[in-house]
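Need tokens for this chain, all 281 residues.
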Amino acid sequence: MITELEAHLARIISDGPLPMAYCRLPEWRILALSSRFRQTFGYDEHDIPLVTDWFLLAYPDGNYRHDLTERWKGYLEANTKDGRPVPDIEARVHTKRGTEVHCVISTAIIDTHAVVSFYDITTLRLALNRLDESENRYRLLFENMTSGFALHEMIYDDQGQPFDYRYLEVNPAFERLTHIPAAAILGHTVRQLMPNTEQYWVNNYAHVAETGEPMAYMNLAKEIGRWFDTYTFRPRPGQFAVVFNDVTDRVKAEDALRDLNAELERRISERTSELERSTRQ
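Here are the structure tokens for all 281 residues:
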């Protein structure tokens, strides 16, 4: 049975701009799917009442499903043990139409519920997998991505330590999402544009460019008041690329869930106090 609180959050999720699933823990029952989820994958609540049903349909290859499930379970166990955020997972999702969608999957656990969001990076994957094909085809894919994209090269000092990085290329979605024109940054370094950039970020990006180990994080762009989910990877040694999506609506939904949980707890506390007072009388 869905509570009033869950029904309210389900309506918020349903209208979200991303493929999203709202789940109740610990059984991971799916309470609501966004309309974009149904459009993207073709499944509805009748097809996947539980997340275990989703895994069977979305990942029909048994070996692939096993590896993905074990990795996800490990992340969930770490979250339960010490509250560690659940890392994003990149996966190939099999749709009800029989097609395949490449996604970055984010899981936010809040008390007894979870919000799972999917970011379609199929176009990006096609672009990266076909770099050896014609420049025109790559450019078409690159310019029509819905995700923001920026390519950078690392800059090192005389001692070989990472010091700065240069913007090499951005796509139209980068300009649209950040409101920064490409002409203002291409060819420039981050320290030329933002002298107060923390060395922490330079070191993190250098780690990706040097090791090939990807990095995922969420950050707030204070200048425009928008939250972005960001995925960083190495296309070739010495470079790193950043792909990001606007997740402001998802953050607002998660905040609303926290507020509603707090309100529910307050009401329960007040009602409990009233009953205790009436019992004493």
